[in-house]
Amino acid sequence: MMSAGQHDGAVAHNLRSGVFVDGPFIGLRYSTGSGSGVIGVDGVFTFTVGETVTFSLGGVIIGETIGAAAISTVDLVPTDAKDPLSSHGVTNRARFLQSFGDDSDLRDGVTITDSQVEEVSRRAEGVDFDSDRFDTSQAVHDLFGQLGLRLRSVAEARNHLRRALRGIRLLRDVEIPTRDGSFLSADVFLPAGPGRVPAILRLGLYGKAFGSGSAIEASAVQASETREDTFFQMKVGDQRATSPFENTASANAHDWVPRGYAIVRIDGRGIGKTPGVVSPLSRQEAEDYYDAIQWVAGQSWCDGQVGLVGASYQATNQWAVAAMHPPALVAMIPFAGDQDGYRELAYPGGIYNEHYREWWFNERVLPARPSADGPYVDFLKTLKEHPFDGEFYTNDIDAPLGVRCDKIDVPVMTAISQTMMLHGRGGIEAFNALRGPKHLLIVDAAYQSYMTHDTLKDQIAFMDKYAKAKEVSLPAVRMIVRKGANEIEWRSADAWPPAGTAYQELFLDGSDGSAGWGAPQVDALIQYSAEVNGAEPRPGAYFYTEPLDEDLDLIGHFTANLFVSSSTSDADVYVALRVFDGEEEVHYGTREESPRAPLTWGFLKASHRKTDPSRSTAERPWHTHTEEDYLPLVSAEIVELAVELLPATARVRAGWRFRIEITASEGPGVFQDIARVYDPEYHAGAVNAVHTGPATPSRLVVPRIERE
C-alpha cells in the first residue's frame, strides 16, 4: 500500500477525483486497489476508473462504492429500498459522520481531527451501522460521550443528506444588517455548486422553522427537523392534502434551488432570532425588507437579481417594499394576498374580520416570538380602533401600509383564491392598477396546493423571464374554470375581465322565492331573522331559478343590487350564489379544504352602502367606508345596496339551477362563525327584509362569457 494520498505511478495518469455531495468529510480515510489517502480540506478523494473505494475512520469501515465524481453516504450501503434514506445502514452512517461537524447546518462540511480518529480507533468496537438499535447502542453512547459530541438525530441526518442529494446547501441563521444597526435572521438555501444565481426572498412573521414557528431551544430545533423529515417521506398527494409548504406560504427550496435559484427566508422583527418589536405591515417592516433585498443582491452567491415569492401575509407585505423601488428587485409573486388594508385585511364589506384576525395574530404570529413576553405592537387593538377607512390605513407608521399599485413598475405575477374568506380580491385590484409587466393567476380557495403544484411552472417561467432574461411566453391571465364536483379546466385570457364578458341580470321575486332573467311585475318582500345562532340553513331570503336551458360559463365580477330594510339601525347583508342539480348542491370548491364553498359570495354592512362613482366600475362597486359617509338605517326604511361579491369562474350545466341566498351571517363553506364580529345591537331580535318588484328591482348581476 502506498503512503496516504498517493497512488502507483503506473496508474497516476488515470486518476480521477471524487467528492461527497453531503460532505466534505475532511479527515476520512479512503483506500483503493492502487492507493490510499485522507480527504483533505478540498474534500477530494482519488481513484482510477472502475476501482472500488473503501472509506474508514480509525480502522472502522464506513462503507465502499465504485469511484465516481460525486457520491454520497447513500452510495456506501447496498440497499433495495425505494427510499434509500429509510435504510438503517444509510441513516446510521450519515448520523455518525455528520456528528463530527461543528455547525448545525454543516455549511462547511465535517472536519474530523487526528485526536478524534484515535478515539474512534480505541472505542468503536461494537459499533454496528446496520443495526436498528443504533440509538441505544452502548458502544455508540460511550464513543460520542468520550468525544464530547452530540449524536445527530435521525431526522437531522436525513434532512441534510436529502438536501445534498437535491443539490441544496443550507446556511442557517444568517444575520442580515439593517439601516438602524440591527439585523434580520435568515435561512439561505443555495445551489451546491459554484456560481452566482438570482435570489428569491420572503420576509414573514410565522417563523422560519420547518412548517412554521421558531427553532431556538434544542427541543424546538428537533421538532422542526422531525417535521421536515416526515414531510419528505410523504407522497406528493399527501403533502398537498396537509400543507404543501416547507415553510408556511413560502417558496419551497426543493422546487426552486435545483432550478438555479437561492431561497432566502427571513424572520421579521421580534420573530425567532431577529431582535425587535413585532409590528405587522408597518413602515419598519417595509424598510427592513428593502435592506434585505439590497444586502442579498450584494452577496457572493447572488448575481444581483432579487425576486419575491410568498402567499397570504407574505404576499401582502410585498406591495409596500415594491413601492419603495429597491434597485435589486426585478420581479415579485404576491400569491393570494391582500392589497387594501381596510377592504380586504381588516373590514371586508365594512364588517370587522375579528375572529379570524384574533386567531391569525394570537395563534400564528405571536407564538413565533422567542419568548411569550416578546414585545409587539397590538395590531388587533389598532384595527378595532379604526372601524372606518381613512388616513390610518395609508400613513400611520404601525398600521397597514396603503400602497398605490400604479406606482409599482417591477414585473408582477399575482393571484387570487376565489371563494375563500380572504385573498379573493386584492390580486385582481392590483393587477388592474399595475402599469408594468403583469400576470394574473385565478385559482381556488385551496390556494396552497395551487401555489406549490398546479402553478409552480408558471411562477418559475415568470422568474426565468425577468430574473434570468430567458425567452418565455406567458399569458396575461391564466385561470381555472371550475366545473363543479372538484372538476376544473384551465383557460387563458389577455385581460381581466376577459374580453367578451357580458353582464346579465338575475331578478329576484319575493312573491314566490324565484329568480329569473326577466323582471317581476309585482312588488313583494321576504323577511327573515337577523339572529346569529349557527342554524343551518341560515334564516334568510332564498331565491331559486328554473333549471338552465343550456350550459353557462361565468367568468368575472358579481354584484348584488338589493333593496333592503331592517327593524333596527343596521344590517349585515351576506349574499351567496349556489348551484343545485335537483335537490343536491353542486359544490364548486376544488380541493378538500373548501367542499361546501358557494360559487361566489360577498357581504356589506348596510350603513357602509355609500359608493364612490369615480372608483366604481361596470364590474364592481367601490364603497367609501368612511365615517363621513356612514349611513345608519331608519327602521323599516328601504335602501338600495350594491353588494360586491368575489370574482369567480364557473361552468354551470344545463339542467342545473341557481340559488341566491341573502342572510345576516355567513353560510356553509365560508368559515362561518369564526371569521367576523356580529354586533348584537342590530342582530339580536332584529328582522331584515329584501324587497323585490318594479319599484325595488333587487337583482344579481353575473358575468356571462362564451365558452371556448
From TrEMBL:
It comes from the Bacteria. InterPro entries: AB_hydrolase_fold, CocE/Ser_esterase, Galactose-bd-like_sf, Xaa-Pro-like_dom, Xaa-Pro_dipept_C, Xaa-Pro_dipeptidyl-ppase/CocE. Keywords: Hydrolase. Residues 460-701 form the Xaa-Pro dipeptidyl-peptidase C-terminal domain. The keyword Hydrolase applies. SUPFAM superfamilies: alpha/beta-Hydrolases, Galactose-binding domain-like. It holds the Pfam family Peptidase_S15. GO terms for molecular function: dipeptidyl-peptidase activity. This is Xaa-Pro dipeptidyl-peptidase C-terminal domain-containing protein. It comes from Pseudonocardia oroxyli. The lineage of its organism: Bacteria, Bacillati, Actinomycetota, Actinomycetes, Pseudonocardiales.
